[in-house]
Amino acid sequence: MVIRVTLSNSPQTVLAGSPTTFTCVTSASKPQACIRAYIRSSGNVRMVDPGNCNQDSNSVQTATRTLTFTAYAEENGAELYCNASNSVTDPPVRSQVYTLNVHFTPRINCKQSEVTVFQGQRIKIECDVTANPVARVSLVRNGNKMNSTFTTTPDPTRRDVTISTSEIEITKQMSSGIYQIEATNSAGSSWTEVEITLIESHFIPKTLKVISCINKKCHPCLGVRH
């Protein structure tokens, strides 16, 4: 029977979309063991490089199998392990389990695509950024990074997601146009566009306090502009 199987040179940190190689080794058995490897993620299991098992049934031998797989971004945090079995081993013997750390290019989704603001005011831009490792987020115009700071907060409900928020002061040096919100980590970078329309400050409307009376009961109406 198969006594044990070991997953060696474990690829705990891998780059999404790039081939990764690892090796599974069993102890000696007769018949020689057949090795399979699996990735389990969110309840789903897929076999790594099925291939064929060439078993020697006449002698006691160890089995070694080198396998190659390509991880997906969605498999960050997935479990990688090997199973070994032969005709007298039921159920298969499982190796130790490794948790994959899959690095991938950020995915960015900002809640605003168009913003209208007066010069001298501040705007708040909030984006959901899915990335591993955590991405740096910047405001970019014509290839130049603007003077803005994005605060990154983990989203407790979703793996690999952070909420990046920045309050940007609109200065006289800025102009209306298309800006990029850029997210970058060691795996790469991505960006999305936001159109910012600036209105000169002397066009800021005044806010008036208006009294509204209904059935002789009066109260202020806030936010009425003239």
Q: What's the SSE pattern?
A: EEEEEEEEEEEEEEEEEEEE
Helical coverage, percent range: under 10%
Number of E-type strands: 20
Q: Using the coordinates above, name the CATH class of the largest domain.
A: Mainly Beta
Gross geometry:
rod-shaped
- The CATH homologous superfamily of the largest domain corresponds to Immunoglobulins
Distance between the termini: 87 Å
What is the count of helical runs?
Answer: 0
Structural class: mainly beta
Report mean pLDDT, rounded to a whole number: 79
> How many domains?
2
C-alpha Rg (nearest Å): 29 Å
Strand order of the largest sheet: 2-10-12-16-15
Our estimate of the beta-strand percent is over 45%
Q: CATH architecture of the largest domain, please?
A: Sandwich
CATH topology group of the largest domain: Immunoglobulin-like
Would you identify the regions where 5 or more consecutive residues have pLDDT less than 50? 204-226
Sheet bearing the most strands, described?
5 strands, mixed
Task: Explain what this protein looks like in three dimensions.
By secondary structure, this protein is an all-beta fold. The protein has 2 domains: 95 residues, Immunoglobulins (Immunoglobulin-like); 98 residues, Immunoglobulins (Immunoglobulin-like), CATH 2.60.40. It is built from no helices and 20 strands. The strands form 5 sheets. It has a 5-stranded mixed beta sheet with strand order 2-10-12-16-15, with no helix packed on it. Strands 4, 5, 7, 8 and 9 form a 5-stranded antiparallel beta sheet that branches. Strand 15 and strand 16 form a beta hairpin. The C terminus is likely disordered.
